[in-house]
Design goal:
The protein is mainly α. 73% of the residues lie in helices and 0% in strands.
Length: 135
């Protein structure tokens, strides 16, 4: 019997994974050089644009299939904190001209829940390494 909380964690994991997969694909489509250039334009090292793009793309896939959920979620959390403090904080929580950091906070909270709890239901980690409940 599937516990309700584990079903909830599965939903969080897949929604977070799909969200970041789509963001990663969007960055690939706009060109990683352009992403790096935008990072530089806001005062961040350009190579971090590549790092963030790959975390979003590969991390999204990993979350969807349930591989390395806690580690990937921690990386996504770091990306969200970076996004909030480097480009969104000055816009406000909701933002008037562009989107504020409300979505970033929600995604950060989702990632934090997955770092704390993991997600074993329908996960590749569970198939490869067994249940995480005893840890």
């Amino acid at each position: 019997m599937v516990k309700k909380y584990e079903l909830g964690l599965l939903i969080l994991r897949v929604v977070l994974g799909v969200t970041f997969l789509i963001h990663g694909i969007a960055k690939l489509q706009m060109g990683l050089g352009n992403v790096a250039g935008w990072f530089e334009s806001i005062g961040i090292l350009g190579f971090l644009g590549y790092v963030v793009s790959f975390i979003e793309l590969l991390g999204g896939i990993a979350l969807i299939i349930g591989l390395g959920t806690r580690i990937v979620s921690a990386l996504i959390g770091i990306v969200m904190v970076g996004a909030i403090f480097t480009s969104k904080l000055s816009l406000g929580f909701i933002g008037e001209v562009a989107a504020g950091y409300e979505l970033d906070v929600a995604l950060l909270a989702m990632a934090a829940v997955l770092v704390i709890s993991g997600s074993q239901l329908l996960s590749l980690d569970n198939k490869l390494f067994g249940s995480d409940e005893a840890k």
